[in-house]
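Sequence only, no structure available. Ideas?
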Amino acid sequence: MGDEMLFMISLGITVLGLAVSYGVGKRRGVASGMRGVSLSLIPLAATMTGVTGFVADLVFSPARWAGVVLAGLAVLLYLVSGVMLGRRASGGGSAPAAGTGGRKERKEQGAGRPRRAVERSAGPAADPEMAEIEEILRRRGIS
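Reply:
I predicted one. Tokens follow.
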């Protein structure tokens, strides 16, 4: 098989992978789509870098350098999507859904927690800093 044929096959696989990644990105979010894009770029990057004579041709071939850049981009996208998925799993990076303006999230934050009236300290000799700490703890339902 010639180099042109391998290039066309890898280009087809990459385009197919990018199309699937677009669908995954729409369904599961940007991080999952980005991970798919990074994996889709690998066949094209591997073909552009070549298998034999890679080191000898790398210095003189801009196409080889383009393959190295694509491979680097694929690795970078994969790592960034992993960080994004890790943040989403831990619940730290969860943003409200588009178009809701956070209304649903704000409603859920207050739901399930009964509101309590803030109780004052028992005596005038109480430390004001301790009273403030106790008030914060009561508001959060800890004491």
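The mean pLDDT is 77.
Hope that gets you unstuck.
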